[in-house]
Structure formats: structure tokens, C-alpha cells
Amino acid sequence: MIHLNNIHYRSLSIEELQIPPGITSIIGRNGSGKTTLLKICAGILVPDSGTILIDNKVPRDEEVGWVNEFPERNILFETVGDEIASSLRFRHVPCGETDARVHACMESMGIASLKNRSMHELSVGEKIVVSLAAALVHDPRILVLDEFDSHLDANLAQKVERFVRRAPAEYILRCTQDMEKAARSETVICLRNGEVVSAGKPEYVFPSLHDTSLYPISWRCRT
User: What are the CA-CA distances from residue 83 to residues 22, 110, 115, 117, 132 (Å)?
Assistant: First the structure.
């Protein structure tokens, strides 16, 4: 369980929040604090006050995979193969094991042909898939996705969604503007002005959002 208690960071204020294992979607209007919450859960930001524990460990003591909304901000190395291998090399994983894990990851995601390509020559969609591969190759316990699929066309978005759903991470935290994806999550957290207004299973959270743009279209059609 991810447990946040008395978290305060700039405009974000969370008195208490528990996030269970599985896929959690964080929703809310722009500026509601979604990305800030994700960064705190990933250990990128440390709150001004309060505690966040992931099964009694702080985020920076956990294996975390992070994918940014803007793929250019994810790039560290020149070639695709080196980019995907980066997290393993930073952990001093032996070269043979690194090569094998990178190859297996690229094969499973259908991007083996990109291995020697320059990261800067890739399309936006390819950069996002490579960034996801780089986040997954070291088998993180926590996968954090900051609207990473918002620039994808429908076909590639569906393909990437399959990669996310079969990821072995125990916790998958995602910020999304796609309410259909949010409705298929195990947990939904709705933020407004830096505060949690509702959290729980989709069938608990979404009824209170019926008259807003955050209500899933498919739910509106069936009612």
C-alpha cells in the first residue's frame, strides 16, 4: 500500500491517501496537482511536510520507472539501445545481462529494429514507446506515467496500453485525460485545486462527476 499522510507541497495538500496495488488513474483539470502527486510518489519531489511510504519504504528506496508527458525530456543517450539500457547501466548490471534484458524488452515491444537508430530521428510515437521500454527494462516495482500517451494516435495508444497492462509492476500510477482508460483502472483519484475530492474504485468515484467533463462518455451513453 502507498500511504500519504499530511502531504504539503506548494499548492498540493493531502491529509491522508492510501493507494492500493494495481493500476491507479489520477484525474482532474489542468493545474489540479496531478503531476506533482506523481512526482512525489516517484521520489522526484520531496514534500515540504508529511510522509509518503510505499509498504513502509520511502519512494527513493524503491525501484521506480518514470515516463514523462514530453518524450524529448526523457532522452539521455544518442541511440535507442543505449537509451533503453541506461537504467541497467546506472545500476551496474553486468554487460551480458544488460544486453539480454534490453534485447528481450525490445522484442516484446516490437521495436528491436530501432536498436541502432538515433533517438532524435524517431517519431514522437516511437520516442514514447522507447521511453516506456527504458522505464520497464529494469522491472520496476512502481511504474509512473505522466500523460505519456496524450500525443499518440488511437492505434498506437491502444498498442501502448497493452504494454502498460501487461507490465509486471506492482503499482502503476498514471495521470490521464482519457476517462475511458481511467474507468478501466482498479483505482481512481480525482484532484481539484491540489486536494483529493474523491478516491476509490471507478464505480465509487465517477457518479459524483456525472455533470462534469470528467465523466466517461461510455458511462454517459449507457445511462
Answer: 27, 16, 9, 11, 11
159 burial level (CB within 10 Å; 0-12, 13-18, 19+): middle
Domains of the chain as residue ranges with CATH = 1-63+142-223 (3.40.50.300), 71-139 (no CATH)
Query: Do residues 196 and 189 touch, judged by C-beta distance below 8 A?
Result: yes
Contact 219, 54 (CB under 8 A): no
Nearest to 55 by CA among 170, 198, 199, 185: 170
**N residues, the chain:** 223
What is the distance between the alpha carbons of residues 40 and 140, in angstroms, rounded to a whole number?
16
Cα–Cα distance for residue pair 134/127, rounded to 1 Å: 10
Strands (E), 115-222: 142-146, 171-175, 187-192, 195-200
User: Cell numbers 493507494 correspond to what residue?
Assistant: 19
In degrees and rounded to multiples of 5, residue 187 shows phi and psi of -135, 145
pLDDT of 61: 92
- Other beta carbons within 10 angstroms of residue 7's beta carbon come to 22
**pTM confidence score:** 0.91
SS3 190: strand
In DSSP notation, 101-117 reads HHHHHHHHTT-GGGTTS
pLDDT in tens, 40-97: 999 999 999 999 999 999 999 999 999 988 877 778 899 999 999 998 998 899 999 9
